[in-house]
Amino acid sequence: MHIAVSRRLFEEQVGQWPPGLAPERGWVLHKVEYPIIDCTFTAPNRTALRLRFDFSDWDELPPTIGLLDEAGTPLGSLLPDPTRVFNSSSHPDTGRPFVCMAGSREFHTHEGHLNERWEQFRGKPGFEDVGSILTKLWHAWQKGTD
């Protein structure tokens, strides 16, 4: 994908977010600048989760999604997640815990999901834009237990 097209699509989609969306959902946006969204999900009585989305080549490819600690350092371990979205095992490419959900590059490149290509999901409900992928992960985080 041409970088200018990817950037324009990213910026258009982020620009459509209602102004109060992030605070209303408890999202702390540390950085929103193509191709990166660095965001912490927060809520009362919940352990916060910081994620770094890299939307390079959006939407020809899904974003790479890193799980970070509060300071922004990649997590080396993760407690088991009952939703199975936040996978505590090591991804073969990164050696770190990863987001195991359609719409993350780590999911689509994991040997267990090579038959679930991004093209099957791209543009469909829940995968149609930048915000929908963040929202899917936010909902998964809300369903997890501390």
At a glance:
Helices cover 25% and strands 19% of the residues. It is an alpha+beta fold and 146 residues long.
Keywords:
146 residues; alpha+beta; four-stranded antiparallel beta sheet; 4 helices; 25% helix; globular
Structure description:
The protein has 146 residues and is α+β, with helices and mostly antiparallel strands. The strands form two sheets. A four-stranded antiparallel β-sheet has the order 1-2-3-4. Strand 1 and strand 2 form a beta hairpin. It is globular and about 40 Å long.
Number of strands: 6
What is the succession of H and E elements? HHEEEEEEHH
Q: If you compute it from the alpha carbons, what radius of gyration comes out, rounded to the nearest whole angstrom?
A: 15 Å
C-alpha termini separation: 39 Å
Strand order of the largest sheet: 1-2-3-4
Q: Report the structural category.
A: alpha+beta
Overall 3D form: globular
So how many helices? 4
Q: Poorly predicted ranges (pLDDT <50, ≥5 residues)? A: none
Mean pLDDT: 93
β-sheet strand percentage:
15-25%
Largest sheet: 4 strands, antiparallel
Helix content: 25-40%
